[in-house]
Amino acid sequence: MAMSRAVAQLDPDLLARMEEARARTDALFKLLPLNSFYDRPIPERHRLIFYLGHLEAFDGNLLRPVLGLESPEPALDRLFAFGIDPVDGKLPTDTPADWPSIGQVEKYNRGVRETLDEALAGRRAIDSPSSELADGTLLHVAIEHRLMHAETLAYLFHNLPVSRKQPQASPKSDPRPAPKPGRVTIPAGIATLGRSRNEAFGWDNEFEAHLVEVPTFSIDAFPVSNGEYLKFVEAGGYQEARYWSPESWEWKSSVELAHPHFWVRPSAASPEAPCQWNYRAMFGTIPLPLSWPVYVSHGEASAYARWAGRQLPSEAQWHRAAYGSLNGRERTYPWGDAPPDPTRGNFDFQSWDAAAVDAHPTGASAFGVFDLLGNGWEWTSTPFAPFPGFRAFSFYPGYSANFFDGKHFVMKGGSPQTDRCMLRRAFRNWFQPHYTYTYATFRCVEE
């Protein structure tokens, strides 16, 4: 028994993936000049210095107890332990002087990594009584948590002025027009949500697997593009309260939101000149790429859907369109059972920015629905809630349960900065409805 546990704990693939995940976040932090670490690019989030320490603090707080290790710096463990739930109504009020120096944080990070790596490679791991360490669960959690934060860092950095990032190649304009919108009829069938506990690793909210009957409906073949969303903006959609829920209208009005966050307001040279929208890419501004998916909040997506006379898909509808097939068998991925590769979609840090919604036809589902994985998380109408049989992680009880509050909505799919391991069918992301900063798009359905 001890031997099988040791083999699981010392799984070379998991340890190698942990190193790869560290390399990815280390590379992201190298995009920051030293004077940017104390910036707060998004008002609802921590200063960037927090994230420099948070990743190692999380790993240490997660793994030290099962490895029998004491922390030499518990004050820093606590300081870097928890992030902020976006748009919780309370903005942080700290100042740069409230945080340690970059050198202190980097020293702390080195100490955490060295201590953990030594323990994972030695007797402490072999002798640990933790079943979650033995079966690889805790290493999966550490890896995927870090990769989730790689995506968080990407959109945080996206909101920094270009002058506050290390110089990179300027983004290229993409003049392609938006593809002609189309709808696909999805026949009635079964959607399997979640996964069984005897499958591979999953977060607590991914369990248990259960079947949902989905009646016939139609769905957009592509996510809503900037070009299609522009019609809503030009039709005065942001000025018409009837398209917005009361809560979203109040929020939109209070922050004076008049267009998607990633769009840059146009300015005309003369009253006769047409206004040309621009787009905030990661490393510069380009003319609005009409063929790219629009990135908006759930509130904005819902308003567009009402304007169009339709609605956002439920989680089950999205699953049915993505993974269902005419023969009744559900696929592992929209395109089939082959693992993800760059021809299937824009994910796994292939690009700092989006791509055209029709750029990856080989990633389409059996029903001909495109761009389902990568290029932008897709909002659903489903509030984030537990599946039947849900059991919170004993070592991280609040990971999902803290957000079962009716104020968050399920997102599916993935973004350009989503690692391929989180493209699995059962993975669920979630955000509050008035958070505009994420790489989040949507498509509409009609029953």
Characterise this structure:
With 447 residues, this protein is an alpha+beta fold. It has 2 domains: 2-164, dinb family like domain (Four Helix Bundle (Hemerythrin (Met), subunit A), Up-down Bundle); 183-226 and 292-446, Alpha-Beta Complex (paralog of FGE (formylglycine-generating enzyme)), CATH 3.90.1580. It is built from 13 helices and 12 strands. The strands form 4 sheets. The protein has a 4-stranded mixed sheet. It has a 3-stranded antiparallel sheet with strand order 1-4-12. Helix 2 packs parallel to helix 8 (137-158) and helix 3 packs parallel to helix 5 (102-120). The protein is globular. The chain starts with a helix and ends with a strand.
Keywords:
single chain, 447 residues, alpha+beta, Four Helix Bundle (Hemerythrin (Met), subunit A), paralog of FGE (formylglycine-generating enzyme), 2 domains, four-stranded mixed sheet, three-stranded antiparallel sheet, 10% strand, disordered N terminus
Distance between the termini: 54 Å
User: How many helices does DSSP assign?
Assistant: 13
Q: Radius of gyration in whole Å, from Cα?
A: 22 Å
Calculate the mean pLDDT score and round it.
94
Spatial order of strands in the largest sheet: 10-9-8-11
CATH topology of the largest domain: paralog of FGE (formylglycine-generating enzyme)
Q: Are there runs of 5+ residues with pLDDT below 50, and where?
A: 1-9
Give the proportion of residues in helices: 25-40%
The sequence of SSEs as H and E is HHHHHHHHEEEEHHEEEHHEHEEEE
